[in-house]
Amino acid sequence: MKDIFKKEDAAGLVLALMVLVVLAVLGIAVAGVTIGSHKLGDIGRDSSSAYYIAEAGANLAYEKIKSGVMPAYTNSNNETIYFTNVADLITAFNPEVYAEESFEIQFGDQPKATVTISGPEDHEDGKLYTIESVGEIGGKSRTVEKPFLVKYVEIIADGETMPFLPPSAALIVKGKVEMGNSSIINGDVYTDSQSKGSFELKNSAKVTGYIYSSYKGKLEDIVALGNSASYGGLAVPDAQILWPAYESMLDMIKMPENEESYTNIGSINLANSKSETIEINENVILTNISLSNSSKLLINNLDNDINIIVKELSLSNSATISFAGEGKVNIFIENKFELDNSASINENGNTSKLRIYYFGNNKVSLGNSSTLNGNLLIKKGNLEVDNSGQIKGAIISGGKSIIIKNSGVFDAPMIVMPYGNLNVNNSGTIKGITVTESADLSNSSKIIYSTFDSGILFPDSVSVPGEGSGSGFVGEVTLDALISSKPALEP
Question: What global pTM score does this model have?
Answer without folding.
Answer: 0.68
